[in-house]
Amino acid sequence: MMGAVNLAIAQLRRAPGRTALLVLVVAVLLFLVQYLAAVSSSLQELNTGALRQLRADLIIYSASSDGSLDASRLPASAVVMAARVGGVAVAQPLGLADFTATGPGGRYELGLIGLGEDPAGRGAPAGPAAAMWPRPASGSLPGPAGALTDTTEVAAGLGTGRRLTLRPGGISLRVTGAASGIRYDGLVTAWTTFGSWARAVRAGNPAGAVLPNAVAVRADPGVAAGVLAGRLAAAVPGSTVLTRSAAIAGVPGAGVLAATFGLLIAVAFIAAVLVVSSVFLLVTVQRQRVWVLLRGLGATAGRLGLAVMAQAVVVVAAAFAAASAALAAVAATSGAAFPVHAPGGLIAATAAAALTGTLLSCILPVRRIGRLDPAAALARPGATALLPARRRAGDRP
Amino acid sequence: MMVIELWRRPGRLAGVTVTMTALAALAVILVSLSSGLWAGATGAIGRSSADEFAFSRDSLGSFARSRFPLTELARVARLPGVRAAGALGTLTTAMSLPHQTVDVAVMGSQFSGPGAPPAALPGRLPRAGEDAAAVDVALRADGVRLGSWLRPLAGGPRLRVTGFVAAGQFELLPTVWTSLATWQALSAAAQPESSSSVPVAQVLTVSLTARARQRQVQDEVSAALGGATVIGRDQAMLAVPGAAAMRTTIAELIAAVLGVAAAVCALFSALQAAERRAELARLRALGASARRLGMTLLAQTGIPAILAVGAAFLLTAALLAAAPPQFPAALPLPDAAGTGALILLAAGAGAIVPVVRAASVDPMITMEEQ
Predict the structure, then answer these.
(1) Which of A159, B119, B235, B285 is the most buried (most CB within 10 A)?
(2) 3-class DSSP state for residue A109?
(3) How far apart are the C-alpha atoms of A103 and A124, rounded to whole Å?
(4) Which among B33, B153, B271 has the least Cβ separation from residue A283?
(5) What is the ipTM of this complex?
C-alpha cells in the first residue's frame, strides 16, 4: 500500500504544474459544493431558525394563512381557548413584526418576535412560561422591555446590556441575553415578551389592532401531538394546527430553496467527479508506456490501480483541504447580516462524498490499467504498445 | 486535420465534452436562476413607469415598512421637476381563485399616476370606487378569466377581474393591481395592525419632467417629505427584500464556475499538448506551420466546448420545462447568448497558454528527446 502511495506521489511530483492546476480546479469545484451547501444550510437556519428553536409541540395558525406565520392573525381569545383544551400544558401567544432598529452597529431591519404574556414584575419568564423559550447561550430570558438576540449578532454589538430603539414608535428594548439560531425570515431578530411586542407594534401605529400571529402550544407529557392537534383545531374556530416540523417545512420558499440548492450542489459535484475522472483517464493513457514497463518488471495490475487511486485521493485530499480552508475563511469573515456557517457535519459529509466520488472517478483509469498485456506490449514496442489488450487482439492478420 | 484528430479518439472527445457540459450546465442553471429570481422579485418595479420612489424616513427603503398619508401627494406633485406624482401599496396575501388558492402580491395604485401598470390587454384597468383588479397574465394558468372573482382568504373585499396586465411579478408572486382604497381595505383585513383611518400608501412615485435634474428633485422630494429616502427605479429594485444579496451571490457563483471552466480547459489542453508533443514536432519538421498546429489544438478545446454549451442549454431547457411553474428560473435569449459566449471565452482563455507552448515546439530538440 505504501509503495502505491509513494509511486503516486512520485508521479504527481514529476508534473508539478499540472498537479497544481488539477488541485486548483478540484479545490474550486469542491469549494463550490461546500459553499452552496453552507449557504443553503445558513439560509434555512436564517429563515426558519426561530421556529426550530421555539420549544413548542404545536403551532396554531389562522386557517387563511396557508401555514405562513407572517400572514396568520388570530383573535386574542384563541390563546384562552387553546389553554382550556385537555392535554395542553402551556399555550402562549406568538407575534411577529418588522421594525427599523437603531442601536449599536447603526440602523437595520429587525424582526421582533413576541412570545408569552409578561411575567409578574419585571423578571424573566420562569416555570412553565419559560418552557417554550429558546435556551439562552448567554445572559437570561427577557422580561418586559427586554430582548433576547441571536448569538451571531453579539459580535455586531447586540450583546447583553445594549439597547435597541424600534422605529416607528420609538420603543426601546434592553438586550438581556443571546441564544443560538433564533433568526426568522433572514432578518436580524430579537425576541421579547408578547406584552412588549404588542406595545412596540401599537406604538408604531396606534390606530391599528394588535393581534397575535399564532399560538404556540406545549403538550402534556404522554399526549400525542396528532391527537392534540385535532382537539385544538376543533376548539379554535378558523384555525390550522401544525406540528413544529410541519410549520418549519411550510415556511414560504423553504421547499423551493432546498430544491434549488440541491440541484446546484448535485451538478457541481458531478462536474468535480467528471473532471477528476477525465483528467486521470487522460494521464493514465499518456503514461501507458510507463505502466506497461512496470507491469513487465513485476508490478501487479492491482498495485498500479492502487497507485492511480492513490494519486486521485491525494489530489482530492489536497483540494478538499484547500476548499475547506477557504470555506472556513469565508465563514469567519461573513457578517452578522448573513452569517455563513461551516459546521463539522457539513465538512464531514462533503469529505465522504468527495472520497466516494474520487473512487468512482478512478473506475475507468483502473480498468484501463487492468487490460494491459505487458508481454505483448514489450514484444512489440512502439505505438502498438500504447493500445489496450482488447484492441490489439483485433489486430491479428 | 482538427476534425480527424478529434474523430480518432471519440472516447476522449466524449469525456471532455461531458465534463465541460456539466460545468456549462452549472453556469447556465445559475444564469437561469439569476434571471428568474430577479424578474420574479423585481419585475413589477422594473417595468414601472415611475422614475423615482420615495420611502418614509425610517423604512430603510422597505416597501412593507414605508408609509405616507396620501395628503403628501399634492405637495410632491407641486415640486419643480416633477411631472406627475402617484402612490403605491403592496401586500402579499393568499387569494382563492377559480381553480385553487394562490399567494399573490396585491399592488394598490393610483391608475392615473406614475407607477401604475400598463393598460390592460385584454380588458380594462379598475375604475375609481370599484372593488376590481387587473391581474398578471400568469394567473390565466390558474383559471382566472375576465369576470372571475378573487376572494382574499384573510378577509376584505372580493375583487372582480376586469383585465390582464403584463406587469411582472413582485417578491416572486403574480401581481393583482387594484385601487389604493381597495388595497388599504385588504391590508387592514390581512394585517389589522397596519389599518389606518386616513388614506395611506406605502411609497410615493414620481415621474420627472424632461429637463429635471434627478439628484436635485430627489433632494427636494426628500425634504418635502421630512427626510424620506428617494431613489431611482434601479435602486428601488435593489430595495426589494433579498434581491440585491441574491443577485450578488449568484453572480459570484457564476464567476467561479467560469473560472473553473477556464482552468479545466487549460488542464485538458495541457494534457493533450503534452501527449502529442512528439507528433507535433514531426509535423513541424514536415513543414506544418506553428499557426496551423496552434489552431488545431485550439479547435480540440473549442469544439468540445461548443458541443458542451449546446448540450448544457438543451439540458437546462429540459429541466426548466420539467420544473413546477413556481420554480424561479428563466432563460431569456440575450442572457443565454451571453452565457454561451462567456463559457466559450473562458474555454479559449484557458487553452491559450498550452496552445502557445505546443505551437512553439522545437522539432529538432523534441525529436532528439524522443
Answers:
(1) A159
(2) strand
(3) 22
(4) B271
(5) 0.75
